[in-house]
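Obj: model holo form, ligand = adenosine monophosphate.
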Amino acid sequence: MTRRLSLALPSKGRLREPAWSLLEASGVDPQEPGERMLQSHCRNADIDLLFVRADDVPEYVQDGVVDCGITGLDLLAERQCDVVELLRLGFGKCSLQAAVPLEDGASSLEDLGGRRVATSHPRITGEVLGSLGIDVEVVRVTGAAEIAPRLGLAEAIVDLVSTGSTLRTNGLRTIGTLFESEAVLIGRTGSDDIEAQRTLTTVLGSVTNARASRYLLCNVRRADLDTVTSLLPTAGSPTVMELATPGVVAVHALVPAADIWSLLPRLQSHGATSILTLPVERMLP
Ligand code: AMP
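Output (holo structure tokens):
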């Protein structure tokens, strides 16, 4: 009998909902925990779920309480736990940025030298600024770093930013990026069930790959085929199929979702017609 795999998921906060929807999309059929329950399971796979705070996930995995977990790359770097990074998950994207009040004259990270910097990420802040030879006094806060300059606690902050609206609302502007983060699947170092870790990584990876891709179909006159295929930002070879209409072929290719907006008008202007894009459910390279 194969051993059950245990997976720690964020119980609340920004990573909870997208982590849950990734599990749902992977087909393991996660079961909602009952009210106040911290544990649940998946109906279609031998996976037990444990719901804990995202910043506790690295410790739970390191200490062997669970085999794997989903957390933020920033939290992983801040905790410096002995775990393996198995897969970047493509959601929870944000960056750790240094910011100062609008009226402050600082314009780059170097200008932080000798200042007090409030952050809930003291380790990353100390390490990144230290590696750049920028000496600051790090003031550790557990949340709401953006109000620290107004309270006179620090002259600058280092905080997670995704849209920048919280900074703007608090009269701050960014002067540099220290770290890029996104959600990540982590596993226990030296796990005795590498196979189960690998299976989970493959299944979740097939969904994250698929989400980042679109299936593109279009019709092209044979005379335009080389031009159109040369425009396709695809690693593999596109499929080319004969159509009933002589001299016209159908081209099918997997393309990065992020390129779609710029690609479609270019394909059209180079002779492609009947252009369709479809979402992809799973993709294994
Ligand atoms: P929580 O504090 O539980 O909402 O989770 C915070 C985690 O969500 C962070 O450690 C990041 O990994 C991620 N995250 C993504 N975007 C942001 C953002 N704009 N602000 C804070 N955390 C973010």
